[in-house]
């Protein structure tokens, strides 16, 4: 089996900024733990970005109508990585217009059936969507619970509970537990 990977889901300004409708109040704490994990994973770190490029003729059209503040060009500063995430990975970001980032693109980088430690934002949307698709694809996922940021503490807890229902494909661990297992 290949070395495990750290995947950092969507550490972008739109999810970090306190004045953003999607800003997580827990982003800074999660980012501290993400940086600690990234040091341990070396070159096996991949950062993703959610991009507002989905086809508006699908249900994404209604989504952007519900969240007009996010209906901006992909080049908008809201979609840039936060400064602390810019140097986490030697690889280009994986930019996708989907909540879940698991698919052929990520498997081409980390490998099919890989062990991946998931971190990022938001626990109750993009991390959850990535984890469930990864489990279906046969990946071995560990969600670093304190290296994820939810929209609220309640939503974070619920998302972790749901992901915890998927062993052995998905396990939950703290940053300290992930590091101790390396």
TrEMBL record:
CDD domains assigned to the protein according to its UniProt record, in alphabetical order: cysteine_hydrolases
Claim: Acyltransferase is one of the keywords in the record: no
Keyword Hydrolase: yes
Pfam family, one: Isochorismatase
Domain Isochorismatase-like, chain residue ranges per copy: 5-164
InterPro entries reported for this sequence: Isochorismatase-like_dom, Isochorismatase-like_hydrls, Isochorismatase-like_sf
Keyword line: Hydrolase
Cleavable signal peptide: none
Example GO molecular function: hydrolase activity
Protein known as: Cysteine hydrolase
């Amino acid at each position: 089996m290949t070395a495990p990977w750290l995947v950092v889901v969507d550490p972008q300004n739109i999810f970090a900024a306190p004045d953003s409708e999607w800003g997580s109040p827990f982003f800074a704490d999660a980012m501290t733990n993400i940086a600690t994990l990234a040091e341990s994973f070396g070159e096996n770190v991949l950062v993703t970005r959610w991009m507002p490029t989905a086809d508006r003729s699908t249900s994404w059209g209604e989504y952007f109508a519900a969240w007009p503040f996010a209906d901006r060009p992909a080049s908008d500063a809201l979609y840039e990585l936060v400064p602390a995430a810019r140097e986490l990975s030697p690889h280009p970001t994986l930019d996708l217009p989907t909540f879940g980032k698991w698919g052929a693109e990520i498997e081409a980088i980390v490998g099919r059936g890989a062990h991946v430690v998931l971190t990022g934002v938001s626990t109750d949307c993009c991390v959850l969507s990535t984890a469930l698709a990864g489990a279906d694809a046969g990946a071995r996922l560990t969600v670093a619970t304190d290296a994820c940021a939810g929209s609220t503490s309640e939503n974070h807890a619920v998302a972790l509970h749901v992901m915890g229902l998927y062993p052995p494909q998905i396990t939950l661990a703290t940053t300290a537990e992930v590091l101790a297992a390396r």
